[in-house]
Predict the structure.
Amino acid sequence: MKKIRSQQGTQEAFLSSIERFVQHLIEKVPQNFQDKKENIADVAGHMEQENVMGTCPKCQNSVVDKGKFYGCSGYKDGCKFTLPKRWSQKALTKKNVQDLLSKRETSLIKGFKSKKGSNFSAKLTLNDEMKLAFEFPKK
């Protein structure tokens, strides 16, 4: 495109180059998948298995990493269970999420921030509605 703008190349040469590139992709990409004996569905399934955090406490399907949050893979069947990746300005670790899913509570977590800006420590629990709640240490 720069060559066309500076009048060192033609639009026809540019389009011909793109056509050759697309033709190369059409010929080589399927061959690469055949060589590896994998198809796209297998690769996607394997990637999703790596993102499984645990079992959904509502419906027993897998809870997977959805990018900005953790969500139940049974969403299409009506399960709306999710967990955030951050809670009260604190990033939840993979271990925290796995503990919530298996035990419905975490160990004591330090570094939460209140709305007023002060730091505090607490356990996270899943209540009966499967929502996150704090459990503060007894004094």
